[in-house]
Amino acid sequence: MPPTPGALFDPDDSLGATLARMRRAKNLTGRQLAELVDMSQPKISRLENGVGLPDPADVARVARALDAAEDILRHLIDLAEHAQNRMTDWRAFTVSLAGRQRSVGDLESDAKTLRVFQPFLIPGLLQTSEYARAVLARFQHLISPTSPVVGSANVAEAVSLRMARQEILADQDRTFHFVMLEGVFQSHVCAPEYMPAQIQRLREVGKQDNVTISVVPAGVDPGTPPLNGFVLADESLIMIDLLNTSISSVGRADMADYRRTFDEYAQAAVTEFEALLTRHQDGYLQQMQAKR
Known about the structure:
Endonuclease, Chain A; 434 Repressor (Amino-terminal Domain); seven-stranded mixed β-sheet; alpha/beta; 2 domains
């Protein structure tokens, strides 16, 4: 197979590495290529870095924009199709707190519909900065062990990035469905004085036309045991929370399993839960008064 003009082509190399070399041979930045093919820059980055499974149509569009010869174009599409045939493909996210926020934000930016399930914590897109700081501080030593001073700076950066991610909620062209267990209000990850504001934020975001928030009340059987939180991005990507990292999958079987499980949890949940919120908010206010 002859090399693409201006690029060293190795048929044994990865799809992403080949696309990256072809782009550099054209003297294009990732952002310039993204504009040329009408994709987001993060999506180009994921293609080149092998994050997730490539869509053969996306690969074809990028390769044609880079003037790939027909035989090389076919080879790259074959690589993408072969990857798609692997029903399960898990990828670990970057290990730093801030890096995880960037990775998740990039994946969210491509989605039109996000379905989020959390059994123990308020979902990140719904957190106040105080709640986010409390949560991220608890995971800092697991995700990126370092000195207390550096760790504090890492947490602050991650909180800022998490708050920036929440701007996506204002996009009325996207829809969001959050499902939580009632236990998220009793997880004690955040000091009691910050919880009334966190509960109020749920009320405010829940008023948006493009956002649905529902809660599985305590004592209600959700069905499949909820072992971990997860996010479904459209019908093509799953992000799953683990103790010290997150992983993703685009496998069709995985997507079907998690979509079915999400729907099961959503069916067990209620969207009219003002009394539940008020009860927990009053409980935290009473705790604050007892400390005075």
